[in-house]
Amino acid sequence: MPATDPLLTVHDGNLCFDGADLVALADEHETPFFVFSERRLRTNVGELIDAFTARHAATEVFYASKACSNRWFLKVLCETGAGIEVNSGGELEKALAAGFEPRRIVFNGVAKTEAEIRRAVTCGVRASMVDSLFELRRIAAVAAAAGVVAPVAPRIDVHVPTLTHPGLETAHGGKAGIDRDDAVAAFRLAAADPALDPVGLHLHVGSQITSVEPYRQAVDATLDLIAAVEAAAGVRLRFLNAGGGFAVPYREAPVTCRSSDYFCSQLTPADYAAVIAGDVEARRPDLTLFLEPGRSIAATTAVLVTRVENEKTKGYRDGAGRRIGDVRWLTVDAGFNTLLEHTNYSWYYRAIVASRADEEPAAEFRLAGPLCDGGDVFAGDGDSPYRLFPAATTVGDVVAFLDAGAYTLEMMSPYNARPRAGAFAVTEGGALVRIRRRDTDADLVAHDAAPGFD
């Protein structure tokens, strides 16, 4: 069991998360389901804010709501005083409903519709992060028609490579942002249009960045760029939005960690702050620093509780087809319909047999989900395809996947007509509350249109 997480404890052989006995919960409620911790959520936000403001007092955190926009989750976040970053009209509405004032909201996205822009500029969000010169003109047209001035911050791709999954890299010639060669043109356009107010510059290097070096390069290059665009466009920017991407240690350190393994990170918020906030403080202390962390706030706030529903032994064969060993398989009731990233990005989540938390994990198993899809097999520990579990692990045992709070509730699907999982939360006072109900059979067909059958 990870020794680094104080919220994980063992009671009578059962794994507990923030005091909640996961096996007892699985006996009371149909699996799979998530369990969140309010204590962990508030701690994660506070540690980020404290680390960055210690280096640069004028720092504001805008939680990236795409990581988890559950209504309870957002309400707790709102109470911490953090702001919120939204990527769609739907996320904007959820933020407003959770109690975030428009000034605490920044609006991102690579394909904003006119309707989404209109809602953002008329409700008064802090700023819109602009993805292209076309979008800059679209925002200007919408704002002019609405009779308002839209605060904008062009998102610039400063072409900094990052050591992360290719699908999580956002600042090295990918789809997001304006090319750095067009940055001056973007700010000149914004400065010349009376419907626009160029208030900042936005950058984002990616997600799950396990080194500070990409941030060092990106912030340094961006501060140079800010000086250039200010001189060329005759503006004085108010903020630099450095994005998020701070890594979560999905693997334990240092035993299973390699420098090239983006599931492993030994960095703390203070490490990122020393580079990002330190550079801003040294070179442009007048700029407010905006941050957009998502995964680093949400991931460690939850575990996924699932149950073993099937077991089998299959042969391991050599090139000639001769059986030379056995492979033990366990199938649980949560697959990529519940943890999409496990297949989408071959993501690794630590797993513990919660019902045998006091037994030595010494036997090798292949671990798979329930879906009718050959790709629904979980990554193994380290370089192996196997998971180490107690040798007696069998059907009926409860398994907990750790660090499951980010990009899980948001990305669930009803594939194979399996109901999407419910979720609970342990409040700071120790109470267990339901924050998402499990889908019902009626939910599976609620949006189907079947003329003649209604």
Describe the structure in your own words.
With 454 residues, the protein is α/β, with parallel strands linked by helices. It has two domains: 8-36 and 302-445, Lyase, Ornithine Decarboxylase, Chain A, domain 1 (Beta Barrel); 38-299, Alpha-Beta Barrel (TIM Barrel), CATH 3.20.20. 28% of the residues lie in helices and 23% in strands. The chain has twelve helices and 23 strands. It has helices at 22-28, 38-55, 71-80, 89-97, 114-123, 133-146, 183-192, 213-233, 269-283, 295-298, 341-344, 441-445, and strands at residues 8-11, 14-17, 20-21, 33-37, 59-64, 83-86, 105-107, 127-130, 150-154, 156-157, 178-179, 196-198, 200-202, 239-241, 288-291, 302-317, 323-332, 351-353, 363-368, 387-389, 398-401, 422-426, 432-436. A hairpin with a 5-residue loop joins strand 22 (422-426) and strand 23 (432-436). The protein is globular, with a radius of gyration of 24 Å. The termini are far apart. The mean pLDDT is 93.
Percent of residues in beta strands?
15-25%
Task: Provide the CATH architecture of the largest domain.
Answer: Alpha-Beta Barrel
- Count of DSSP H/I helices: 12
Rg, nearest Å: 24 Å
